[in-house]
Amino acid sequence: MNPDPVILRHVAVHFDLMALRERLRVREGRDAEELEALVREATAIARPKAMYRLVFIDERGEDYIVVDGVRLTSRVLSVNVGEAQRVFAHMATCGTELDAWAHGLTDMIHQFWAEAIKEAALRSAARAASADLEARYRPGKLATMAPGSLMDWPITQQRPLFQILGDPEAAIGVRLTPSCLMVPNKSISGLRFPTETSFESCQLCPRAICENRRAPYDAELYERRYKAE
Questions:
Q1: Scanning 57, 99, 111, 141, which has the fewest C-beta atoms within 10 Å of its C-beta?
Q2: What is the pLDDT of residue 49?
Q3: How are the residues of the chain apportioned to helix, strand and coil, as percentages rounded to the nearest 5?
Q4: Which numeric CATH code is attached to 6-226?
């Protein structure tokens, strides 16, 4: 039987003011003071959260795997998982508290800054989940795939991923819209799996401009590794 999800509702968060200033290109003066005030507000409000669940693979095919009775359809995912027996469904979020605070801001510049603050809170939650998973399961080297990151695994696959995790809205406040976008918007989800070969979805994504790119695009990788024979 697959275990219940691990839920992290009390993630410590510390905002690096100088890093935020550098990223947002905020100079000394009034703007810096206003950003600092926003960070103080966010620090008092922020409750980033995360959850993950160990699940075992029931069945696998050329373009799908079944975990906990739920089918995930992706040729790239199936090949990447290989002969692994277990995977980890995961989700992290900046939290509904910080999201509501950001939506209450009326100044457009402050709203823009708040998105960066929310993203920093999200990263804190993701790091906390990774550290907890490592301490609890010692899984070794893991790779990650997220629904919507590739045409091969479209964003509609969020629905079965949410099903695998149980009830993310009740657990950590993340809900799915009819178009399969997550709310709060600064949330991430995906599947982590043991790997011997490094993999980033970016390697299969030809988008030329992406500030979140983690690996260069490899135009021949799909033909070389994932094309069905």
A1: 141
A2: 98
A3: 40, 20, 35
A4: 3.40.109.40
